[in-house]
Amino acid sequence: MYAVKTDMLTRFGEEELILLTDHDADAGVINDAMLNQALADASAEIDGYLGGRYTLPLPNIPAVLVRISCDITRYLLHDEHAPDRIKERYDGAVSFLNKLGNGSISLGMPDEGDASPSNNTAQISSAGSVFGRESSKDFI
Fold it and tell me: Full-prediction pTM beyond 0.90?
């Protein structure tokens, strides 16, 4: 994962994380399961953009990806009710990831250039033609 609970706490504070994850509203604590699921979903979204260009998992996680993961996680936790400023941060994160994916910007680490070549390619072989003029005996 690109970000963890402590990253989210540092950026957004415990009170906001409780509001976003404690749907019972009576526990008054961060729902770790819900937060971890959103963090995992954000990481999967980031991997979707980076997978064609970088070998995953990355050997070290740049700080920019931690920030982007936190912004995506925060947006995902808001569900369909994200305020405009959080939606704008999410849109900015996706725009950055698009640029990373298409190569117009870089993480500053070696990339694969294009998607890694695969050895799982289709191959066709034939034993030759079954029907032909020579073997048809005047039927063709």
Answer: no
